[in-house]
Structures are given as C-alpha cells and as structure tokens.
Amino acid sequence: MFGSVLGAFTPSFAALGGKAWRIPWRLSKTRKANVRKRLREVDDVIDVLSASGIECKQLVLAQALPKEHEMDTRDKYTTFSRTAKNHRKGVHKVPHFTKRPIPRTTPTGF
C-alpha cells in the first residue's frame, strides 16, 4: 500500500543498508565513458603540471601512475576492497567516487 503512495521514497531491504535500490548493479555505458573522460582529464592536468616545470613529491608519484589508455579495464571500473568477495568492488559503489582519487594500481597479487 505505501509503496505506490510514496513513489520515489519506496523503502528498501533493511539488511542492505536501505540503499539497495539507489546504487545500480553495474556501470552503464554513459557512466563508464564519464569515468574514462575523468581519468583522461586527470592525465592532462598531470602533463600540464609536469611541462610547467613544477617539482613536488605528489607530482612525481602521479607521473608514475599508468595513464588511462595504459590501464587495464578491471582497474578503470573497479577498485580494491578487502571486504568484497573477490577483493574487487565497482568504482561506483565507492562514496563520492567522482570527487575522490581512486587508486589506479592494485596491491600485488590482486
């Protein structure tokens, strides 16, 4: 009864933390394209900073990371998670993944 009345505020399964209906199971083509675009933009910023002659520790670390076209598909769209079954979690399940720096490399062995 309440599900049809509340519309977008439909309650979800409590064991899933109440967010089961908000996070899609997989990334759509559009979201994947946006992830790739965001990675390329970060690569461009790193290139511009390195060409300007600025030297700092974080820039050196950023230059050591693989570029978007060098990354494996698994590393672009998933991130390492200790608690996940296969130790991988979709990048869209990370809170604020568009604002946080997602690691481009994984621990050895994963």
TrEMBL record:
It holds the Pfam family L31. Residues 72-110 are annotated as: Disordered. Residues 84-102 have a biased composition (Basic residues). One of its GO terms (cellular component) is mitochondrial large ribosomal subunit. GO terms for molecular function: structural constituent of ribosome. It comes from the Eukaryota. This is 54S ribosomal protein L31, mitochondrial. It comes from Coemansia aciculifera. The lineage of its organism: Eukaryota, Fungi, Fungi incertae sedis, Zoopagomycota, Kickxellomycotina.
